[in-house]
Amino acid sequence: MAMLSPSRRLRRTPFSQGVEAQGVKGYTIYNHMLLPTVFESVEADYRHLKDHVQVWDVSCERQVELRGPDAMRLMQTLTPRDLRGMLPGQCLYVPIVDETGGMLNDPVAVKISDERFWISIADSDLLLWVKGIANAYRFEVIVDEPDISPLAIQGPKSDELAARVFGEDIRTLRFFRYGYFHFEGHDVLIARSGFSKQGGFEIYVEGTDLGMPIWDALFEAGKDLNVRAGCPNGIERVEGGLLSYGNDMNRDNTPHECGLGRFCNTQTAMGCVGRDALLRVAKDGPIRQIRPIAIKDRIAPCDRAWSIMDRDRKIGQITSAAWSPDFDCTVAIGMVRMTHWDPGTELRIETQEGPVTGIVQEQFWI
Amino acid sequence: MAMLSPSRRLRRTPFSQGVEAQGVKGYTIYNHMLLPTVFESVEADYRHLKDHVQVWDVSCERQVELRGPDAMRLMQTLTPRDLRGMLPGQCLYVPIVDETGGMLNDPVAVKISDERFWISIADSDLLLWVKGIANAYRFEVIVDEPDISPLAIQGPKSDELAARVFGEDIRTLRFFRYGYFHFEGHDVLIARSGFSKQGGFEIYVEGTDLGMPIWDALFEAGKDLNVRAGCPNGIERVEGGLLSYGNDMNRDNTPHECGLGRFCNTQTAMGCVGRDALLRVAKDGPIRQIRPIAIKDRIAPCDRAWSIMDRDRKIGQITSAAWSPDFDCTVAIGMVRMTHWDPGTELRIETQEGPVTGIVQEQFWI
Fold first, then answer.
1. Most CB atoms within 10 A, among B48, B120, B317, B331?
2. What CATH number does residue B153 fall under?
3. B44 and B190 in one domain?
């Protein structure tokens, strides 16, 4: 692993000061922004996340804001998910596809009102696609990146910590719903969501002024809960089957290949740019799909796609992998051809350190 | 400086193996790809670049390819630079702007034919903007990211090294022109260009198979020229006034603010998306602009924008800075309001380590 050279282009966040004070050891870059990857060690962070509560600087989940009379129309143009029933106060996972049905991003849409949405994006400049579409279709809508930096509370003690800082009402918030909660005289939008399977919240912090005060309040209130700084954990997210855009999928993949078919209502999502392409995919079904794969060996980090081979023929690839202490194997995410995707199928996987054997699993480790 | 955590999302390149073997010490992430930043040290790399010749893995200069009858029309929609006189064999620096005239990228366009362009991009997913525009305007053109990885030869001995590997003809190639040159039975597109002021070439390596053979051939042929692996150098590029998208400018800036007005033929660039907005800017002139700024102190890396203050009022910001051994000062790039942009003006600059004084320069250090 090499060092990361700092520059303004790799944007700092409203919480960088807190992250550094907590002894961050590694970063990745996500949407041109610093995203911590390690504090104590990936395995120690994992254990702590599953047992206690963590505060995550996920400012890199940048927002694309749609504002104006055509906001809803533009939103439906972007995704094959039918949004007609979506209410203010709701968050929805929305695959975004291009005209070929290829995945451009897999964000969470937050509906503020009929004329205002936030799209909380994964790692691609979705803003450029949305602006291009909005501009060329002459939609009456303003598309921009507002100065909003999400801060996540994740782990089994999340409700307790959030209640201490934002009030007891937050315990009743339902999954993928948001509400406004008080903090030092401000109303702050908080959703029950986050990039782990341990439960928790995401605070949509507007501007920078409230950033460190909220960070500090959480650490102050959570001392006896053993609160720590954390980050999306490479082991826990693979166990939980949380896909990572750019790792496990990209423009080459349809939502159906990614196992996201249930988020596509392609028949009724009128106006979606990729609709025609996806109608075909939905009819025929994908010929390769994401699968959980267990490998008994402990191997080097998955820093490149590992080919899955059947003799000389490539029949898939592994794109994320991590040693799981709880499941005593390397848990992995791969895209596998239909000939080899049944649970129990043995796969030959070519890593940078040589071949290993993997087994297709029935389900992720949840 | 913290460590960079590897993952597939931070793409390796056809030359990563060579870069690692040469002892790369630091990276940045650029277009979701590894870009080396340091080999020996930034200062030692700088000295070597100015005296000898280096081979740079700039695969992260990804290409956006436009292919089809409307390729030229689409290209002109993207930029305020008038492209009517552009010939095959030519490269042009083309600011790309949105409908407000804000910079989306500052790539080099390479014209292969009237129906085929490559856009060699800076750090933003320009592909998404171009696909959005092409799709919504229903242009007859295919827009994609081909598997092309530029490899640069930079430094005063570049001609000698390139001639040894690709033949004597390469010496006659003019600046920002390209030609096809032989390598092991293949025709390879090579341009006289690169992100330094020391001269050299960029080889547009298609696919991965030729990557390491070309890399190895350059190191083999250049032994007595003291060839080394290098990378865009943080000192040399600021001295030379080479702007970095994401550092020195972004969507908030017009080309005119970036001093790129000479690349805008807004009157005649019919069809450019940002034309109306830029006509106004061209008429009034910008009220802030990029300036070279000298600081006598040696200061910490510019990892965030440094505000330039006139008492309590912010009148600009520094976005790149590096200690220059040759000019015995910190060379910097900043955006300064017209009230303070005249050469000789003294500026108060707030860095993360406290205030320093800068002086606006007449020109960059070239």
1. B331
2. 3.30.1360.120
3. yes
- Do residue A160 and residue A190 come from a single domain? yes
Does the pTM surpass 0.90? The reply is yes
- Of B117, B144, B171, the residue at which a domain comes to its end is B144
Smallest Cβ–Cβ distance between A303 and the set B12, B129, B304 belongs to B12
| Tokens representing residue A162 in the block | 């959030």
Domain presence at residue A343 = yes
Sheet holding B26-30, edge to edge: A33-38, A26-30, B3-4, A3-4, B26-30, B33-38
Residue A137 lies in a domain: yes
Which of B95, B113, B144 represents a domain boundary (last residue)? B144
What is the maximum span of chain A, computed from C-alpha positions, in angstroms?
65
Min Cα–Cα distance to chain B from A33, Å: 10
Range of the domain at B336: 289-366
Q: Identify whether A114 is part of a domain.
A: yes
Asked if B5 and A24 come within 8 Å (Cβ–Cβ), the reply is no
Residue A266 resides in a domain: no
* Domain match, A120 and A49 both: no
Say if residue A179 is in the same domain as residue A81.
no
Chain B interface, best mutation among A3, A19, A64, A138, by max B CB count within 10 A: A3
B178 and B321 assigned to the same domain: no
Beta-carbon contacts of A46 under 8 Å, excluding residues fewer than 6 positions away, are A233, A235, A236, A325
Which 3 state secondary structure label does DSSP give B336?
Answer: strand
One digit per residue, pLDDT tens: chain B, 366 residues?
689 999 999 999 999 999 999 999 999 999 999 999 999 999 999 999 999 999 999 999 999 999 999 999 999 999 999 999 999 999 999 999 999 999 999 999 999 999 999 999 999 999 999 999 999 899 999 999 999 999 999 999 999 999 999 999 999 999 999 999 999 999 999 999 999 999 999 999 999 999 999 999 999 999 999 999 999 999 999 999 999 999 999 999 999 999 999 999 988 988 999 999 999 888 889 999 999 999 999 999 999 999 999 999 999 999 999 999 999 999 999 999 999 999 999 999 999 999 999 999 999 998
CA atoms within 13 A on the CB side of A80: 31
The domain total for chain B is: 3
Q: Do B246 and A6 touch (CB under 8 A)?
A: no
Task: For residues A129 and A227, give the distance between their C-alpha atoms in angstroms, rounded to a whole number.
Answer: 38
